Every structure is written in structure tokens, then in C-alpha cells.
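seq as requested:
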Amino acid sequence: MELAIEGRPPAPMVAGADGVWEVSVSEAAAGTRYQYRLDGERYRPDPVSRFQPQGVHGPSVVVDPDAFAWTDQGFRGAPLAEQAIYELHVGTFSTAGTFEGVIPYLPGLVDLGVTAIEIMPVAEFPGSRNWGYDGVHLYAPQSTYGGPRGLRRLVDACHARGLSVILDVVYNHLGPEGNYLAEFGPYFSERYKTPWGAAIDYDGPESGAVRRHVVENARAWIGEFHLDGLRLDAIHAIHDASGVHVLTEVAQAAREAGARLGKPAHVIAESHDNDRRIVLPARAGGLGLDAVWSDDFHHALHVTLTGERAGYYVDFGRAGQLPRTLAEGFAFQGEPSAYFGGARGTASADLEGDRFVIATQTHDQVGNRAQGGRLGTIAPFEAVKLAAALMLAAPAVPLLFMGEEYGETAPFPYFTSFLDRGLAEAVRRGRAGEFERFAWQGPIPDPGDPATFVRARLNHALASAPRHRELREFYRRWLALRREHPALGALGKPRARARLAEDGRVLTLERAGPSGERVVLVANLGAEPVTWSGPAGARVLIDSADRAFGGAAVTRPLAAWQVLLFEPRR
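C-alpha cells:
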């Protein structure tokens, strides 16, 4: 192997005892372009490149991580239990489609009441349009978004306004184009399979360097970019039979990097397994992560609001599932699942609420629809408010998907910009085949068509339009209540009680604070009014039918989809 610095002859490298190839050179300052030459003929970018300005196939560029003038020395983050997370996709969040394009909207997010943004994956991917899950340069922020400097400027700006920043990272596979890791070593395994590509080898006889590649990546995101946490994509597709799971090491590295900056670093997992061990400490046989996405909440709620039962929704719609997710975290705690073909899940009632992240919409749940339609385009306006109220009243960490707070109507379909035309065509055919049964909804968007990406851009001007403005105010008031009322928030899950009326139409959620404070949420889960007698003398804290929230000011009986939060008289 040789180091090929632009404008110089290749310099031979020597393999060290740990398998890392090394060479010392002079005058390789920040901005220097370089590649590795393998077998005297193949030029490849650095597997740990910090910047790929010419894309996944181009040369790497030296970056000085200490050159940026940070101003966030006083930022100390917040416990996960105090977070309200806002997921966004950099390319479609603003017209600019860059890291710095997000910055002008930060004051609005602070006013809304969210406390953290969660950025969809930004590791360098092919072209300029992608969800981010096809990244191949794990250490390099996407060049078309503004590269490493742009990401640092965004993080610094967030911290100046009190916002934490969580990054979605993908450690279960790498994208198909520009993935040269296999040419540098045994990074992939044939023993395991993933739906998206070759599995990364975390437990083979030569996996030490592979594990280090990922563990140090987590450390770099937190340490070099001052991030406040990581969201780990689809960890059920990460296979590791080692004595210490690689994700335990990832979490430890992230926390160590955060501690050096004087703040916590949260590590959140996505998993469809409903496995409590994800959030149990290593000493108790767990992975030691901080929280897990609970899609059961979304699925149970979505079926309730829409009646859809296709795909993974086939397991949902039974009475009791929605209250169980609200009060306990998981709907499936060992029960048989038709979709997964066997028992699914573990007990979750004893786990505290900050171990669960819940959402009414996410990139997955919107993008997995044939047209990428948002909840507000398929459910009534009042039902959308009910969904938000249940999420924000639950003992869990809430996550909003960009634009949901004002009822964004732009779809969020899957989009790519692969440079390999054969790959782009294969993805187009695969997507069309996957959603063929939904052809009655209209043509399936071509992921490679630039128009698919353009249609996904947010229209922030909607936030000031009637109904959209009232919906945003509903979210803002709920987020304020979560912060201010001692009976609300992510903690206190063991004191939460949820139940359905016998007819299955009215849901009640009771929350209690540490000193006896109480609130009760009552929701009509149907499209018809329901007779309901509230407790005498109760103080209503928020009513979805209030005219301030675009409602009809109905109080009795409960209108379709109406939801009330009140304090019972002591």
C-alpha cells in the first residue's frame, strides 16, 4: 500500500503490528488531497477520511479537527428524560439543503419547545440526494451539505440556543456504491445477512480492527463535532456473538468523549425486537444503551386512527394495545406476532419512561408508505391533534418528524442519486415492485428522479397559514406543559395508568407526579361523538377542541377525536 498525496510521487507504507498501515510525511497540512494506492494501481479514498469534497470516489482531504473556533464551552446538555427530539433531514429541511441552511430555523424550534434535533445520517453518500442510509465514509460529513465545517457550524449554533444535537448513524451495513472497505481488510461477513447489503464482521477472528473502525467513529462524532448523542440504526441487523457486544463499546466510547467535553452523550437504538436488554446495563446482561425507539406506540396509534392493517400493521388493532404502549412501553412483550412469525418482545413495565423514544411520525413511517404521505394527509385534522397529545402525555421521550408540528403536506418518499446507472435502475425497479399492490394510490415515485427529492422539501411558510398555525400552537402548548407540570414528562412511568372504556372508544391516561400531583387525559378514539361525564370541578389544562387550536369549541359530549387534559380536584 502507498500514500499518494496530490502532486507527489506515491510513498510506500509499512504495516504495523495492529494491522494499520503507516507512513510519515512532511507538509501534509489541512486541505491536502490524498489517496491510497493499492497493489500499485488502484487509487482509493481513505477509509477514515474526514472530508470527501469530490464525492465517494474522489480523493480525501486532510482536516484539522482543532482548527474550528468553538463557542459552546458553556453548553452542558441535558438528561435524556428532559429532551423533546426533532428529527430532520438536512437536504430537504431548507431550500439551501445544507447544514448551515438549518440555522435560521433554530429560533423557531426553540420557541416550539423542542430541546434537541436529531439529524438523519450524513456520512458521505453517492451524489447529492439520499436519505443517508447509503453512506460509505463513516467519518466524513456529506460534502454537498457543507462538509465538516458546515456540521460544526450547525452544532455550535444549536448549542448557542440551548439545543442538543443527536446524529443518526448506520453501523449495520454500508451503502452499495463507493464502498471500498473490503479492499482494505475483512470488514464484512458471509455468516450473517442484512436486507441492505453485506453484514459487517464484528465477531470473526479478524474483527478487532473492524470493531475499532466503528467504535472510534462514535468517539469521533462526539469528540470532534461536539455532538450530544447518537441514534443507532436498526441494531437488530447488527450481529455480534463476542463476549462484549460492539454496541456496548460504542456507547462507552461516546460517553467517554462526552465526558471530556463536560456533558452527557446519549446513545439511542432503533430495534424491532422489543428487547429490554438493549437498555439494561452490561452488568445485568444488557447492552447498556440509553433508550430504544418503541415503534409499537406508533403502530397501535396509526391503526387506531386510520384502520390500516397491511404490512407490519397486521399485528395491531386489538383492544388494549394502545393503552399498554402508553403505560408500559411495548405492546408486544412475548406475545405471538403474525408479522414476525413467532413470539416477540420482553417485559417492559418496570423500565422507566426515558428508556423509550416514541413518535407519531418518523422518516421510516412516512417514507415506508407508497407515496411517502404524512399523517396529516391521511387522517383528519382532529385525529392528528389527538396523536400529538397522546405522544406528549406519555411517559416517554417524544420525537417529532420535521414539519409535523404545523401539518406539513409535502411527502417524504425514498430518494437517491446513485452515480451508477445500473444500481439506480435496480433501486427504481425494486421500489416499484415493493409497492406494486398500492398502485391504486398513484405512480410510485422514482427514487432517482430529482423531482422526488424536490417534492420532499418542507414548505415552512405553511406554519403561518390557518389551521397549520393553530396546530403548531397546540404542539407548543403541549411541550410547555411537559416541561412545567410535575405529573408530565418522561419520568414517573411506574405511576402511569392507561385504560380503554368497555366499548373501546374512550381512552384514559392518568399521570402522577412525585408529590401527588395528578393529570388525566381523556381521548375519543373515534370519528363519532361520545357521551362522557368529566369529574366535577376539574381544571382543564388543554382541550384539542379549543378554537385556539383550530377546534370547534365543543365540550360535551366528546367530539370526534377530541382529547382533554385536566387536573382532578384534590
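Residues 531 and 557 are 5 Å apart (CA to CA).
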